[in-house]
Amino acid sequence: MKRSKSIQLILLGGLSSAALTGCDQTASVSTQNVYTNNFYVPGAGYYHAPFRKWCALPYNHFDPQRNLYFYGGQWGKQPCESITNISSPTAEAVQLAQSTRTDISRGGFGGYSSGHYWSGVYS
Fold this sequence. Notes:
alpha+beta, three-stranded antiparallel sheet, disordered C terminus
C-alpha cells in the first residue's frame, strides 16, 4: 500500500495539536516537552517550532507596511516554509522563556515572606 506524504503531514499536524489540547498554559516550559508553532507563553512570546525558540511575534506573521514575514527572530520576503510544526525548545530558549514569563508570580521586593519583618518590629 502506497502512502501519501501529504496525508502523513496532516496526521502529524493533527496528532501534535491533539497532544497539546487542554495543556495548562502556565505549566513549566522544558526541553522535554514539545510545542507547536505559535504556542504562546506570556512574556516570552510565540513558539517557532523550526527554530526551537520563542519570539515576540507569531510564526510567519505578515507585516503589510513592511511587506515582510516574521519567523525565527528575523524578517523575510517570503513566509518560512518548513514541515516542522512541532519540536522541543533548546536549553537556552527554555531558560530565556522561564526568565521572561509574566504569568508566574516570583515574589521579590516590596513585601515580606512568612510574616517576618526584618526591622525587628515582629517576626
